[in-house]
Amino acid sequence: MVPPGLLPARRDRVTIRIGATLAARKGAVSGSQKGRHMNEQHLAAFRSSVNRCVADQAFLQDFYDRFMASSDEVRAKFNNTDMPAQKRALADSLFLLAVAVQGQSTSPSWRQMERIAERHSRGAMDIRPELYDLWLDCLMQAVAGHDPQYSPEIDAAWRSVLGEGITFLRSRH
Ligand code: HEM
């Protein structure tokens, strides 16, 4: 039998321990989510810059002109491509990426990215992983030329979002 004087002290200890455990778990969860999710400021800067860029009709044309001129291999890949449709698909995939980087790898937007990755893989169009460096350089030059608010912060925001998409597509080559 427990001596009467010990009961309140034991109960206090239990209460404190449970409180501490819950607080620690809460901290751990929000901490890990912060680590997994894209930096909010980057994401907001990316979204608003994408909107400004695509509002400019010449943006995606400028990107594809640069990309085609960057290598014979790239130009050959687009030999039979309907370019107006391709420009729309790329604009859509920029918005898709902005959603994907916010969520779990099982989200619908990553499943759509899977489909895009499959088309770029060696079993389909066989886009070599090295070509993504050219793609990024050309796209960032187009952003610099078409976003009137372009700045080092905007540049960093695009690179951090696109970096996730590029890593994903390369990993499925
Ligand atoms: C993260 C980077 C990239 C993204 C987000 C992206 C996005 C897309 C999307 C959304 C499509 C349309 C897919 C469909 O309709 O099923 C597409 C098609 C295509 N992409 Fe990419 N792409 C990327 C990088 C590249 C690179 C580096 C190349 C190198 C040449 C490339 C070449 C092509 C070609 C050839 C097509 C197909 C055109 C056609 O249907 O004829 N892409 N891309």
Q: Fill in the CATH topology of the largest domain.
A: Globin-like
Give the fraction of residues assigned to helices. over 70%
- What's the overall geometry? globular
Please compute the radius of gyration using only Cα atoms: 24 Å
Count every helix, treating DSSP H or I runs of 4 or more residues as helices: 8
First and last CA, distance: 68 Å
The residue ranges in which pLDDT falls below 50 over 5 or more consecutive positions are: 1-36
Structural domain count: 2
Question: At the first level of CATH, what is the class of the largest domain?
Answer: Mainly Alpha
Sketch the major β-sheet.
none
What is the correct CATH architecture of the largest domain? Answer: Orthogonal Bundle
Relative strand content? under 5%
- Average pLDDT rating: 84
Concise account of the structure shown:
With 173 residues, the protein is an all-alpha fold.
